[in-house]
Amino acid sequence: MTEPAQFIERRRVQRVRLTQPLRATIDGVRVFILDLSLQGLRVMHQDDIGQVNDAAVLLRAEWDGTRIELRCRIVRTALHRAADGKSGRPLYHSGLAVAEAVGASDLTLRRLIEHHVERALDEQKANARGIPPLAAQSTQTGAPTTYVRHEYTLGRWREVMTPTAAQPESGFTIGAEHSPAEVEMLRRAYERAATNSDRAVIKRLAALSLSSNEVVQA
Fold this sequence. Notes:
- This protein has 218 residues and is α+β, with helices and mostly antiparallel strands.
- It has helices at 5-13, 105-128, 134-137, 180-192, 196-208, and strands at residues 16-26, 29-36, 40-45, 57-63, 66-81, 91-101, 147-153, 156-162, 171-175.
- The protein is built from five helices and nine strands.
- Helix 2 (105-128) packs across helix 5.
């Protein structure tokens, strides 16, 4: 059933929490984006990024090979974690309001938000059907360079090393770094899938686990 236009639009502009913090800079100072919407975002940082309600700052980031540049105003800053030990440094969270998206950054921002919304919806569907949330388990930084295609034909699995991430007609393709236990769990879920729709969800999760977004652990 087609979703109502107003629901689709709400989904496009809603705030999403990133699965992993995204590296960025504010006027050259390193920060990590934690969550965002088209109107604002929350960042984590250790160095000073400016004063609340002061002059606009320029945030730069890169997602899916595309640059994001946003002119923002700092609307709040709070201490998130005090300095730990003699050499430790305090950690701050700051909220920013987006004043202007430079160039095509607004389109990239929409794509980033939609990607995370679709990923969350797929994982919710998978959880409801007892399918392992493979994309959520993946903690890789960058895309894998080697893939394994797991083809399911006549009740038997065939495993093929491949340089491409293309999904097969029957089965799924994932990165070679996944453990045998994860592979076995995903195979069993695929075998138990009652409908083509359920198997399509598994393929979708496998594709999401091959995401090439640059992420950095905080």
